[in-house]
Specification:
The protein is of the alpha/beta class and 170 residues long. It is 19% helix and 35% strand. It starts with 6 loop residues before the first strand and ends in a 9-residue tail after the last strand. It comes from Phenylobacterium conjunctum.
């Protein structure tokens, strides 16, 4: 299991769809690991102390995309994983994947923080067909498998726990 001494970081991850059913993904690299291969991932980030998940979703979407007209849906997936912040601190991310919809259009990077500018290389809308044949990594694990149900508006009664068990080291 995960190291209990790690700081827990509640995180709002957003499955952000436009009216055409496309999902917005960002492509970036891990902090302090320039040799790491880039991967695609959803919009989102940390939930600030005292902030609700919905407020964090709205804030992250506005900061990372500029979109402010947002319809927020349910939490559909939950995931935990150990990772590094841009400061280098290792934390246990506790991710809630929330469905949201916006009018679409060109996303803005105007609200990005310096570490986002440094680590994020691309941001674009993907169709489900493009996601289904993607050869580049997309996070979270099982994203390609689970996305079609969510995109179709078929949400689980309770959020699915999609944490991938850690493999024991040999």
């Amino acid at each position: 299991m995960f190291d209990p001494s790690l700081r827990h970081r509640p995180t709002a991850r957003v499955l952000l769809f436009d009216p055409a059913g496309r999902i917005l993904l960002m492509k970036g690299r891990l902090p302090n690991r320039p040799q790491a291969t880039a991967a695609w991932f959803t919009v989102g980030g940390g939930v600030e102390p005292g902030e609700t998940l919905e407020a964090a979703v709205r804030r992250e979407i506005a900061e990372e995309t500029g979109f402010r007209q947002i319809e927020i849906g349910p939490v559909v997936w939950l995931r935990e994983g150990v990772g590094a912040l841009s400061t280098g601190e290792t934390v246990l991310f506790r991710e809630s994947y929330v469905v949201a919809r916006c009018p679409g259009g060109e996303a803005s990077r105007a609200g990005w923080e310096a570490h986002e500018v440094d680590l994020v290389d691309d941001m674009r809308w993907w169709t489900l067909d493009e996601v289904s044949v993607a050869t580049e990594r997309i996070y979270p694990e099982r994203f390609i498998e689970l996305l079609p149900e969510v995109a179709a508006g078929r949400y689980p009664a309770e959020p699915l726990v999609i944490t991938v068990p850690r493999r024991p080291r040999a």
